[in-house]
Amino acid sequence: MTQAEGNSYHGNPNLKPLAYQHDFSEEEIKEYVKCKNDPVYFIENYVKIITLDSGLQPFKLYDCQKAKVETIMNNRRVVLMEGRQQGKTVTSAACILHYTIFEEDKTVAIMANKSAAAREVLNRYQIMYENLPIWMQQGVKTWNKGDVELENNSKVLTAATTAAAIRGKSVNWLYIDEAAIIPNNVADEFFTSVYPTISAGETTKILLTSTPLGYNHFWKFWNESLEGVNGFENMFIPYYEIPGRDEKWLEEQKQLLGDVKFNQEVMCEFLGSTNTLINAQTIQRLSTKEPEFTKNGLDIYESPQENHFYAITVDTSRGIGGDYSAFVIVDITEMPYKVVGKYRDNKIAPMLYPDIIGKVGKDYNDAFILVEVNDIGQQVVEILHQEIEYENILSTVNEQQKQYVSPGFGKTTKHGVTTSKQVKRQGCFAFKSLLEEQKMLVFDEHIIHEISTFTEKGSTYQADEGYHDDLVMCLVLFGWLSSQQFFKDMTDINTREGLYKAQMGDIESNLTPFIRLDGQEEEVEVLDGDLWLTDDAYNPKNLQKKLKNLIGQVAPKSRIE
């Protein structure tokens, strides 16, 4: 080993090797203590970064960046939102540098959408480290593209945001760079399996930084931090706090990026896809709340209420990990209608799905259920009807290429609805009207995210590339249902009472073969175990009680007097 190698890590003269002996001067000791106690001082006086214009330069923090450092270092949980090219990544790397040098036995996990992006953050950390004075450094144990370990047993790991990436590892600080870029399905799994373990620690730190990109997990964390419900300190740094970003610069960015990207990447507005069914103003107005109950894909925001009426619209999939089987529960008692629950699972078998639908429907006061019967949906609705014997399944009639909900039964009547072009078109614009006119309330993060990526494609609407629309299609079905005369009758008390009386008249007429009305002595008839017309004279109230389940297609049982 050469002299240079003995005083360096693997021949790198900029890295301090293990067991390196250094006699600190009194001035160095003072500086070390000052740097440990003041991260801003440490960064401005000892950290160097590579700039596009000037190469390697001391990191001179703007006032907003100083505030950023203080926020990151002094809070356990931080969600930080900034526009593009405002230095959020390099500032975060400098904070991690301070943390690993001056704290012992700490593990930092740098995560991003892709491993390469996480390693880029570590690369910035490594450039800063290599340009520190040797006496300021810790000895180096490991120095790779994907991880670093120091002599004080602090380490930095990098990984993509997958559930398996850091499972089982003891992490003291989780940093997710450009958190908004993580696909929603990946983020779902990650935040469900990994995040709770890390956040449960009493001293663990979590930092999320990003520019907005639609209505996703980052948007949820940001909104909840504003509402003060998730324990995160939030910080937003607008473009004008960066020196040199004046009106001229702003106009140049507008011309360069176009309106949508400019609003998103410079103005930091949460925007969905372009040409969405629901206008941007409405989407921006939506906000999430935590479910009262959640288990196995079922999220409940409001428990069943006595004397309330509910509708459940159902979309189905094959349960093989692609599209989701989904349904939404809507309180239709009064306007605004309210989505009080949702189910979403892409692995549930079609044979088991009806059991879940039926159980939830029973819990919600025998809710009216409308099932899409395209493809596998036919099997689902048959099980729901024939095996589970659920009563309030909505039926449709197809006449002259037009479907409508029918309370009756006949040769042309079928359970469920086929989502034709006409049904989808009508449902889309009915749903659009409900939401934009604030006649429907939605609180679920998955639904809101799907709404924000449900875009125009030719003559129809569907999920943007790489996204899902199973929940929003449930709401499209509800929109179609709400436009039906039957639904309007069902949700109007006066109309419902009138329909009830009319239906009772029809039922009485249909029963005439079993009733003697010619003045002769009343006969006793037995039908399905029920005794009809005993020596009590014909009594409409008794008849009403016996037959009320026959008119379940007109009004829920709970509303029949």
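Above is the first protein from milestone M3; the second protein from the same milestone is given next.
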Amino acid sequence: MMHHRKSTRRPGGWSRRRRLLTTLPIFIVLFGILVTVSTLTDVQWHDDATGRTITPSTPNTAVAFANPDDVPLPTLGTYEVRDRYVTIDVTRASTGEVQTLNVHVREPVDAGNGLPGVVFLHGAGYGTCDNSFSDMAKAMGTAGIVTAVVDKPAWSTIDINRDYPASADAYDAVIDYIRGLDAVDDGKVGIYATSEGTWISSYLLQDDPDVAFQILLSPMVFTPRESLAFFVAQDFTLAGAHGGYQSFVRRVFNIDAALFGLTNLDIRTLTPEAYAIPTFVAYGSRDVMTAQVDGLHTILDMCERAGNPDVVIRSYRGGNHVLRPGDLTALGTPYAGNYVNDLIDWIGGTLAGLDPICEQVAGAPIRQSSAVPTLRAQRVATIYGVVLHILTLVLLIASAAVALVGATRRIRQGLRRKEPVFGFSHGFGRSLALLVMATGLTLLLFVAAMGRIIMSVVNLAWGGTPAHDPGIMYWSWPVAQVVCALVVWEWSGVLSRLIEVASARGILRVPPRKGAVREIVTGEQPVLASRRLGRVMFWLAGTAMFAVLLVFAFWGLFSYAEPLVY
């Protein structure tokens, strides 16, 4: 009795083995292209030890000076404060734009002459003279310090294209005004800069070295590109996002923004001149926007290079980015710890020329969970990314348009469907639908995950706490990697089957079988579809879906190795 092996060959088709041997090299080529794109678009990321903590020798933030001659020093609550307003016109040199700034001046009543002065420099946004620094400016006034809070000089700019040199000139005009007041000692006027304002202060001090002192609250220290990349990378980690999503951060912050007219990302404000005067630095322990460990070391290094020993660094427990407890939406909350008293004591002792007898660094532990990256603009990758995303969008829109045309024709035909709209053959229609659905769902998964990550980062930046369970922020990355690999394999199978059918139709012969091309075009012996609309739909949608995979590859989804570091 003879036993026959069951055939694996379709009638008139290939065996399973032949289909596998055709599918596999196609998969290797397609997957290799995507891995190569992920590798070539990856960027180097400065990699230092992370999770670093500086624990000051004392948690006591008090600032003390040796005062053997009992020189009288400013004290909170000593004077009543008088408010008045003036206006100053400032010109943006690069454009000639003029902005009229309101200046809120607070003066201690009956405090005599020779008083110190402070001008406040805004952080990001559009602060005015009345909604910013009010409590600090008034507190300083009660201690005998003349203060000036000004509308933020912005002209026609927004946060992403702020004119820092022009802003520095505008603030310096306010400084000159305060210096000119009869009650003010023009050699005792300093600045109070917070967040973005610490970039502006660097320009200001290079142009006006006669500023007497500076208070830096949550200083950014590094370039905008490096500072923002650190902030986002650290908060991605704190939010619990999968490490793969760091590839988004690396690529976003290596963009060549100059191609879009944005030149602020790489401004170099880290110079010894910016730290050549007495400096008070304040951090909050809940501030997740600033690189506090790297910032501390860098500031001390800059002060040393400038020959400036007069630097005090304080870290306040529970303080957020603006040194308030709670989140940034909680308006009207007091400053953390003893910040106001410490600041007044420091200003008084510093301007009196007294010797400090306190620790240079004190307060709560200073932590930093990620390294500050060293980044540079990558023009070629930026151009490629822009072209790829525009092309993908065009392909998706065109695919949707063709699908809409098909749906319209189907509706016109009614329920009887006298003739096929697309006329897909050999199961290519079902395969296309499956691939579009899988790729689209992966795209939606990414959008949902990135939306959740961004919401978590915003929550952290505003003083919130990390989510207990990162959920989709973590598992979406490996799931997407697996699904996309399966999609590439399925595409390889579809292309293999396409070759199989084309071979059976005689189109792949050299020369092609007589009449084969005509039969395919007319739909008599279709390879893909009997209708031209179906063939257009297949190749257009297929190209669009592969373009989406290329977009995934651009953002690092097909990267399976750690990024290069130096």
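Note on the second protein: The mean pLDDT is 88.
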